[in-house]
Amino acid sequence: MSEPTYLHATDGAARGRLRLLQLYPRDMNIYGDWGNALVLARRAQWAGYDVDLLSYDPGDEFPDDVDLLVGGGGQDSGQERIKEDLVERGPQLRAWASDGMPMLVICGLYQLFGHRFITGTGAEIPGISILDAETVAGSGRLIGNITLESKDFGRVVGYENHSGLTTLAAGVAPFGRVRSGDGNNGKDGTEGGRADHVIGTYLHGSLLPKNPAVADWLLARAVERAGGTWEGGSLDERADAWAEKARKVAASRPR
């Protein structure tokens, strides 16, 4: 584990401390995915929490005390570089997920949080089976602005850019239903997958700056798991106003 960044509550004494881990930022961090960790840290600060912002790459010491985990996307080469370490960390990650830890994983890590990813050459990159899903490489790319409808989050907007085609097992809840775009595979209308408090999705952009409701849901689950109660009333309304403007622009743009 690299040296953590300590961020202090922005107003008065801290209500508590949250430890946020970014998984594999060196190899799995494209299209602005690191922005998701920054949004979570800042919104936690606005709500009165001190934040320890941690990162983990292969070869680092793996932290044993974490409240919330995020991970980004990467090319096939990035998945190859982290695949052995991810399998080694799999039991701990599965235990955290079963214990209710909130997690957000994007694109390449979304694929590897499923059972497996079959590359374009037919090679198999094993996953860690937190999500009941499988991915195979497609012949083209699913790329462009995308809009979802989510039961918990309402309208979700983002940007997809992937060739992998993901299929959820029967009964697995998607992150959302596609209103505009391709989603998991361009056929069944699903996008992303969920299990317990784990969200996997193809939405880059980064996702959370334009979708603060998702960020606050993740933070609320982290606080509740630690025995507290999330109160977001002190969050910066100006930031959410800018987020809403960004959402409208993103949703209006053609693919």
From TrEMBL:
Substrate binds at residue 141. It catalyses: beta-D-GlcNAc-(1->4)-Mur2Ac(oyl-L-Ala-gamma-D-Glu-L-Lys-D-Ala-D-Ala)-di-trans,octa-cis-undecaprenyl diphosphate + L-glutamine + ATP + H2O = beta-D-GlcNAc-(1->4)-Mur2Ac(oyl-L-Ala-D-isoglutaminyl-L-Lys-D-Ala-D-Ala)-di-trans,octa-cis-undecaprenyl diphosphate + L-glutamate + ADP + phosphate + H(+); L-glutamine + H2O = L-glutamate + NH4(+). One of its GO terms (biological process) is peptidoglycan biosynthetic process. The active site is at 107 (nucleophile), 204. The keyword Hydrolase applies. Pathway: Cell wall biogenesis; peptidoglycan biosynthesis. Its EC number is 6.3.5.13, 3.5.1.2. Keywords: Cell shape, Cell wall biogenesis/degradation, Glutamine amidotransferase, Hydrolase, Ligase, Peptidoglycan synthesis, Transferase. SUPFAM superfamilies: Class I glutamine amidotransferase-like. HAMAP family: Lipid_II_synth_GatD. Forms a heterodimer with MurT. This is Lipid II isoglutaminyl synthase (glutamine-hydrolyzing) subunit GatD. The lineage of its organism: Bacteria, Bacillati, Actinomycetota, Actinomycetes, Actinomycetales.
